[in-house]
Amino acid sequence: MQKEASIRQPLILGHKTYHDITNDIVSPIEGAAPRQWKIAITIAAIIALYGVGCIAYLVGTGIGAWGLNKTVGWAWDITNFVWWVGIGHAGTLISAVLLLFRQRWRMAINRSAEAMTIFAVMMAAVFPVFHMGRVWMAYWTLPLPNQFGSLWPNFNSALMWDVFAISTYFSVSLVFWYIGLIPDFATIRDRMVKPGMKKFYSILSFGWSGRAKNWTRFEEVSLVLAGIATPLVFSVHSIVSMDFATSVVPGWHTTIFPPYFVSGAIFSGFAMVLTLLLIMRKTMRLEAYIHVKHVEYMNIVIIVTGSIVGVAYLTELFISWYSGVEYEAYAFINRFSGPYSWSYWMMMTCNVISPQLFWFKKIRTNLAATFVLSIVVNIGMWFERFVIIVTSIHRDYTPGAWGEFHPSGIDVGMFIGTIGIFFTLFLLFARYFPVLALNELKTILKMSGESYKKEAEKH
Amino acid sequence: MANKVFHVMYDDDQKLMTAAQALVSKGIRVKDVFSPFPVHGLDPVIGVKRTRLAIASFMYATTGTLLAIIGTWYFMIHDWPMNIGGKPSFSWVENAPAFVPVIFEFSVFCGAHGMVITYLLRNGLLPGMPASNPDPRTTDDKFVMEIVTDQNSSMSASELEALIKTTEVYELSIKEY
Questions:
Q1: CA distance A354 to A307
Q2: B113 and B155 share one domain
Q3: Which of A168, A191, A363, A443 has its CA 20 to 30 A from that of B83?
């Protein structure tokens, strides 16, 4: 058995046995749904339904129902798309990159972070798909034989790359998540008494039996999937950034975009993980598994990625002046002093200044402060995408074509609606799925469990 | 003589490891182990070989790369070359940089899904498949070692049982099959 240094803080607090871990994670699924859960899911479902209504209206009317105009052809829709994809970056980063780096603290958070990833990517897909207008023709993005028209999709286009990137990312994240869930579903199956529930989890568990050979394969599959999902994490948001970077719009045509978008994505993803986990650990009594040390680790990731984002903002600003291209320079002068300067300064405050507060140990180990800052970061990251998209195109080369963007009710309704759908899905996950990778946690109990570590110190 | 199957239950992974080492050193063949989580270091003791899934994954990914190369060549160069922004599609090599993202994504797609499908099929994991663990507690906190008499023909069933009982057994169930 591996030993862990005694100065390292334990990852599982209190005196837990293997059976306790199973109990702590599975008993909320067995019991009746708590009242707060019912209230929360009702609110989320109402918002979700409103969003679905807005989408139906949009499809029936056409995308003119959004506030887009001739000058600003991309606004909230693509802002929301990039925002959701960015949020969807933390899950696979946590489960893949942290697995390769052998970061054991990931085991307490990877399951819910991956669930969040999957739901966030689903929400992201809503926007470009409905932006197509005639959504029933979305399958034209697939390279199908050309009875459908005489052309193939254009593989030189960054938008086409995006179709491949997002669908690969979504489907690989989904199977990665499910492979990890199978043994945990088996644990639930073997505990369930009610026949209906037993049947349900027995189907979900695919007949997992936990043989030695199954586990060997399981570990190999997890490792290889982590290995190939890691470049995937970095490629997806790089490709999203190329939707902008390969254009000739001043403010978009920037080589810094891929790394800048990837770190922004990880930044906002971790913020969303914190927002969700801080509520979840409290309401589902998971304090022994997700404690201050985990939150601190995540806050450190936020400082690092937040600082990279800050440096990227300043680099962009400097390069726009240093390039000597007046259009490029104006795009940035307009950002911080034009009609949308309020959103630029909002972005700067939320994304560059606020995460720097985490340098203070008092703040990064304070759960309330972390919760507030995680929401601030998410607001800031939404504004970052809004600033990049709208302020770059609302004033382009010809002043005669300048314009402004005003969101319509459908714009707002769809955005709020996707938040509702996201929370509905996440609440269903928290109720019926094992929220922690419980069988993986058992493998670190003897290394990183508090009582086991104390025991080891005595010897 | 009817064949017997011993399901030896342990309540700790360390006890299981010690027992497996002790039994194997006495020449007993362990058929299988059911555990709630991967017990590291157990595989070489009971003779489970390393899986070749990673190699399979590499081959699936290579297939994906090839398909994507053939696809981009056929769609963009051969079948219907387009002149986009004054950049005509003359040859695949000249256009290759623009195809890198799609080729990469498709390789990952094939590598990941091919491997996962192989993994599920090799393990017999499909929706609705029956579970074969001998005791429901093996997915919670108990570890079961499966030993069968016809793999250990050098000793009698009672000798085998006596040897098994020298380890820290939590529960022992013997069935005939």
A1: 10
A2: no
A3: A168
Q: What mean pLDDT comes out for the span A400-424?
A: 92
Q: Are the beta carbons of A442 and B36 separated by less than 8 Å?
A: yes
Q: What is the 3-state secondary structure (H, E, C) of A19-63?
A: HHHHHHHHHHHHCCCCHHHHHHHHHHHHHHHHHHHHHHHHHHHCH
Instruction: Inspect the interface and report whether the beta carbons of A217 and B54 lie closer than 8 Å.
Output: no
Mean pLDDT for the stretch of residues A316-324:
91
Q: Does residue B62 belong to the interface with chain A, where contact is any CB pair within 8 Å?
A: no
Last residue of a domain, one of B103, B123, B143: B123
Q: Do residues B61 and B107 share a domain?
A: yes
Same domain, B60 and B96: yes
Tell me, what's the pLDDT at A428?
Answer: 92
B42 and B79 share one domain:
no
* Residues B59 and B72 grouped into a single domain: yes
Residues of A in contact with B67 (CB under 8 A): none
pTM: 0.91
- Across the interface, whether the CB atoms of A210 and B139 are under 8 A apart is answered yes
**A295-310: per-residue pLDDT in tens?**
999 999 999 999 999 9
For A367-390, the pLDDT digits (tens) are: 999 999 999 999 999 999 999 999
Q: What share of chain B is helix, strand, coil (3-state, %, to 5)?
A: 55, 15, 35
Q: Are residues B84 and B23 in the same domain?
A: no
Torsion-angle region of A372 (φ positive above 0: left; ψ -120 to 50: alpha; else: beta): alpha
CATH code for position B42: 3.30.70
- In sequence order, which residues have a C-beta less than 8 Å from that of residue A338 and are 6 or more positions away? A391, A395
Q: Minimum mean pLDDT among A144-148, A149-153, A212-216, A309-313: which range?
A: A144-148
List Cβ neighbours of A7 (8 Å cut-off, separation of 6 or more).
none
For residue B174, give the H/E element and its range: strand B171-176
Same domain, B41 and B9: yes
Which of A27-36, A100-109, A414-423, B161-170 reaches the highest mean pLDDT? A414-423
Whether B64 and B110 share a structural domain = yes
What percent of chain A is modeled with pLDDT above 70? 98
Option in B46, B104, B126 nearest A212 (CB) = B46
Closest CA–CA distance from residue A322 to any residue of chain B (Å): 28
CB nearest to A210's CB, from B46, B84, B138: B138
Q: Which residues of A220-245 are buried (b: 16+ CB within 10 A; e: fewer)?
A: bbbebbbbbbbebbbbbbbbbbbbbb
- ipTM of this complex: 0.90
* CB pairs A-B closer than 8 Å: 204
Last residue of a domain, one of B123, B144, B161: B123
What's the domain range around B20? 4-49+131-176
DSSP string, A123-145: HHHHHHHHHTSSGGGGGGGS---
Which residues, including other chains, have CB under 8 Å from residue B123's CB and lie 6 or more apart? A208, A213, A214, A217
Q: Which of B37, B38, B131 lies nearest to residue A209, judging by beta carbons? A: B131
Give the pLDDT confidence score for residue A147 in this predicted structure: 66
